[in-house]
Design brief:
By secondary structure, the chain is α/β, with parallel strands linked by helices. It folds into 2 domains: 11-48, no CATH class; 51-132, no CATH class. It has 4 helices and 5 strands, in the order ααβααββββ. The protein has helices spanning 11-20, 37-50, 56-64, 71-86; strands at 53-54, 91-96, 99-104, 109-115, 129-132. A 5-stranded mixed sheet has the order 1-4-3-2-5. A hairpin with a 2-residue loop joins β2 and β3. The longest helix is centred in the middle third of the chain and has 16 residues, at 71-86. The N and C termini lie far apart (57 Å). The mean pLDDT is 82.
């Protein structure tokens, strides 16, 4: 792209360059999958919203306590979080395989995690529901 005396190329010129490279069709769709940018962006945002995240605190607790979650366990934890959301729970205790997780359901974020040894008192505060998976 060459800029001369403050003149910028037009959108049509830029679209033409990309279309000639075979990356974008003139209707705004990619040739690879037929989706527009807005469709791809919406799909990515939706998948990010549905993806269970771990807070820094929860990540440190998992590491300190040598807790490693399998794909199956992550899936079940996500499922438990979804069930809590369907019931209108905001802060949930999710119990699974002798592990306990406190999850902020609205943000889809695990706040903390502990195993059976750490949950010795069996007292959990600041939750408004529990799910056992």
């Amino acid at each position: 792209m060459k800029i001369l005396s403050g003149q910028f190329p037009s959108i049509e010129q830029m679209t033409g360059q990309y279309a000639s490279q075979g990356r974008v069709q003139t209707n705004g769709k990619t040739e690879e999958d037929g989706q527009s940018f807005s469709e791809i962006l919406s799909a990515k945002q939706k998948s990010k919203e549905e993806e269970l995240r771990f807070s820094k605190h929860a990540s440190l607790r998992l590491s300190d306590r040598h807790i490693e979650l399998s794909d199956s366990q992550l899936s079940r934890l996500q499922e438990g979080t979804q069930k809590a959301g369907e019931k209108g729970i905001n802060e949930s205790l999710v119990l699974m395989d002798e592990l306990a997780f406190i999850v902020n359901v609205r943000n889809n974020t695990v706040i903390t995690a502990m195993d059976q040894n750490e949950a010795g008192e069996n007292v959990f505060t600041n939750i408004d529901g529990a799910v056992i998976v």
